Amino acid sequence: MTTATEREVRIPGDIELEGVLHLPEGVRPLGGVAICHPHPLYGGSLHHPMVAALAREAAKHGAAALRFNFRGTGESGGEHGEGLAEKADVAAALAFLGQEISASAGLALAGYSFGAAVATAYAADEVAGYGLAALALIALPVAFPDLEWSAGSLRRVQGTPVLAVVGERDEYAPPAAVVRALAALGARGKLLLVPGADHFFEGKRLAVAGAVTRFLAQRLGGGG
């Protein structure tokens, strides 16, 4: 484990996005992960404790991490895009992250709740999702009424390894429903069930961030 730095950044694209970049100190990053936050209309942003914990854990374990605000959130430009326009925000974040680290380093994508749905939609795109080293989905809201499209998107994810983390008592990401969604991925899809947790992972966020970081580090070349 290493020390890490973090700094505020502006991410260019069709609109400018607000972000925080985390970098391991004194070493070349083994890769990078962009992290998508939960639903902005319900208070989600790059400052959410789960998002911040994941970014900090990833940097401590040698990966660059970028948490960013979707359009219409915080100091990002534009307006909320109902989970569809936000795919362009993911593309901009990954492009920015790739420019900040070695060109040969791999890139991964992680998301929590609404962010997991957007990350899935991005990865399912035939062109945009190509080349991701890993996809980590925390509380993928397959049972949230306004995001039915997210579960079906998993069937179109390319050859990317996927880890889905779900709470045992999550009403928006019921474990059985997430298992059914992952079935289309075969061996590429793994499930981590967090006993006693609901959609918000109170008291368990650091444990979840650690598990996701280990998965990402292995796929990015860090060996865990």
Give your account of this protein's structure:
The chain has 224 residues and is an alpha/beta fold. It has one domain (4-220): Rossmann fold, CATH 3.40.50. It is 30% helix and 23% strand. The protein contains 6 helices and 8 strands, in the order E-E-E-H-E-H-E-H-E-H-E-H-E-H. It has helices at residues 49-60, 86-100, 114-124, 149-153, 175-182, 205-220, and strands spanning 4-11, 17-24, 31-36, 64-68, 106-112, 134-138, 162-167, 189-194. An 8-stranded mixed β-sheet has the order 1-2-4-3-5-6-7-8, with helices on both faces. The chain is globular and about 40 Å long. The model has no long low-confidence stretch (mean pLDDT 92).
Query: Which CATH architecture is right?
Result: 3-Layer(aba) Sandwich
| CATH homologous superfamily placement | Alpha/Beta hydrolase fold, catalytic domain
Distance between the termini: 11 Å
Instruction: Give the domain tally.
Output: 1
Strands, count: 8
Largest sheet: 8 strands, mixed
The computed structural class is alpha/beta
Biggest β-sheet: strands ordered side by side in the sheet: 1-2-4-3-5-6-7-8
Please compute the radius of gyration using only Cα atoms. 16 Å
Attribute tags:
Rossmann fold, alpha/beta, 224 residues
Per-chain topology:
Elements: E1 4-11, E2 17-24, E3 31-36, H1 49-60, E4 64-68, H2 86-100, E5 106-112, H3 114-124, E6 134-138, H4 149-153, E7 162-167, H5 175-182, E8 189-194, H6 205-220
Parallel strand pairs: 3-4, 3-5, 5-6, 6-7, 7-8
Antiparallel strand pairs: 1-2, 2-4
Helix pairs in contact: 1-6, 2-3
